[in-house]
Specification:
The structure is a single chain. The protein is globular. Helix 5 runs parallel beside helix 9 and helix 6 packs parallel to helix 10. It folds into two domains: 104 residues, no CATH class; 115 residues. The chain contains ten helices and seven strands. 57% of the residues lie in helices and 16% in strands.
Length: 260
C-alpha cells in the first residue's frame, strides 16, 4: 500500500475497490461490479454459479474456471483482480464485453444457459436498435421483462424437448414413426391453442411474423413458460404422454385465453 508524507503526518492511500450491486439479467440475479474506472464487470465465481444452472452441459469448476475460460477465449480472455466493497480479498473479474464473448463460445459448446442468454441478448439488442430507428420509445423495464421471459422460456423449451425425447426413448416399442414425427409440433400447437386459441400457422399469419416467441409480450412469454414448465413435470414425474401433459397443464393453470 502506498503512503504519502506531509511533514510529521503520514497518510495511507486506500486501495481501489469495486462497487457491488445486484444485477437482474436474463431471469437470474448475481453480484455485478462497477470498477474504479466506471466500467462494468462480473466476478469469475459469479460466472461459474450462473453457468452451473445447466445440469446437462459444460459446467466449469471455480477452481479451474479461469484456466477453462482462457482455453476457450485465448487472448480475448483478459481477467483482472480486484477487491470489492464487500471483501478485501481480491477476486478474478472479467469485463461485460468478455462475458458476452464467453457466452457466445459456451453456447456453441452446448451450455444451455449460455445459449439462452446469447440468443435472447441478440434479439433484445436488435429490437432496441429497430425501436431507435423507428423512434419507438419503448420503456427499458419492458425490454428487461421481455428479455428475462424470453431466456427463461428458451430454457424451459429445451427442457420440454428433452422430456419428450426421453418419453420417446422409454416408449420406443409402442410408438409409431408418425407419432415421433409429429409429437413436437402437436405439443407446440397445443400450447398455442391453450394461450391464444389458434395454431402456430394462424398466429404467424395474424401477427405477420416468422418467429412467434419474438413477437410475444413478456406476459405472453410468461404464460407459455408456465404451461411448458408444468408439462415437463407431468411427463418427468407422473409419466404423462407429452401431448396429454400439455393439455393437462393448461387445465390446471386455468390460463385466460389471450386474443390479439
Amino acid at each position: 500500500m502506498k503512503t504519502f508524507s506531509f511533514g510529521k503526518c503520514t497518510m495511507k492511500k486506500k486501495p481501489l475497490k469495486a462497487v457491488v450491486a445486484t444485477v437482474r439479467y436474463a431471469g437470474f440475479e448475481f453480484e455485478g461490479l462497477r470498477l474504479p474506472d466506471s466500467t462494468y464487470a462480473i466476478g469469475i465465481p459469479q460466472v461459474v454459479d450462473l453457468l452451473a444452472r445447466d445440469i446437462n452441459g459444460f459446467r466449469p469448476s471455480k477452481n479451474t474456471a479461469s484456466r477453462d475460460f482462457k482455453r476457450i477465449l485465448g487472448k480475448r480472455f483478459r481477467p483482472s483482480k480486484i477487491a470489492t466493497e464487500l471483501d478485501n480479498a481480491k477476486i478474478n473479474v472479467i469485463g461485460i464485453e468478455t462475458f458476452g464473448l464467453l457466452m457466445i463460445q459456451l453456447a456453441i459448446r452446448g451450455n444451455e444457459v449460455a445459449q439462452a442468454i446469447a440468443e435472447a441478448s441478440v434479439t433484445t439488442t436488435l429490437e432496441m436498435a429497430y425501436d431507435i430507428a423507428f423512434n419507438n420509445k419503448q420503456k427499458l423495464e419492458e425490454y428487461q421483462a421481455r428479455h428475462e421471459a424470453r431466456v427463461q422460456g428458451k430454457l424451459t423449451r429445451r427442457s420440454l424437448t428433452d422430456a419428450i425425447q426421453d418419453y420417446i426413448k422409454a416408449n420406443a416399442d409402442t410408438l409409431s414413426d408418425k407419432y415421433e414425427r409429429f409429437v413436437y409440433n402437436n405439443c407446440s400447437n397445443a400450447v398455442n391453442r391453450i394461450i391464444f386459441g389458434r395454431s402456430a400457422k394462424k398466429l404467424k399469419e395474424s401477427w405477420n411474423c416468422t418467429e412467434l416467441r419474438d413477437a410475444m409480450t413478456s406476459e405472453e412469454l410468461s404464460h407459455v413458460d408456465s404451461v411448458e414448465r408444468l408439462a415437463v413435470r407431468l411427463i418427468d414425474e407422473l409419466g404423462y404422454e407429452p401431448f396429454s401433459a400439455v393439455k393437462e397443464a393448461g387445465n390446471r393453470l386455468l390460463i385466460k385465453q389471450i386474443n390479439r
